[in-house]
Amino acid sequence: MKYIIREMQSKEYFLLDDFLYEAIFQRDEVNLLPKSIINKPELQIYVNKFGEKKDDYCLCVEVEGRVVGAVWVRNIKGYGCVDEITPEFAIALYKNFRGYGIGTKMMKKMLKYLKEVGYSKSSLAVQKDNYAVKMYLDVGFQIIDENKEEYIMVHYLK
Q: Could you point out which of 48, 56, 103, 123 has its C-alpha 20 to 30 Å from the C-alpha of 109?
């Protein structure tokens, strides 16, 4: 599959609402959560007014002229927050584009960018039974904490 990974343009930030929904791990694929779930304040912090904060940065993947995935970071008090200075990851691909290694390549490119601009680490939270845990471990994230349902993971960049 041919694709390009590029910086997301500000005029495309509205797409992050769709990718936020796609990023939600849903165990029961028959009874999906309503898309309105992303309007909850604890989820909106990942996308609301994206691009206005100093640490907001987003890469997207494009296939045949269509944006089909995104990886973005911001410094927020989200599920994977570890401190005041560490940007937190969010990543999503439309289902038809999963399993091709695209997510891994997006993660690696974002990690490279974060290192180049001087961050020492990045974090994320992931449901323990989410298949993406393996990808996060493979790109160098480490489990530093956990609760009943999630791992808190950090990638040390230096």
A: 48
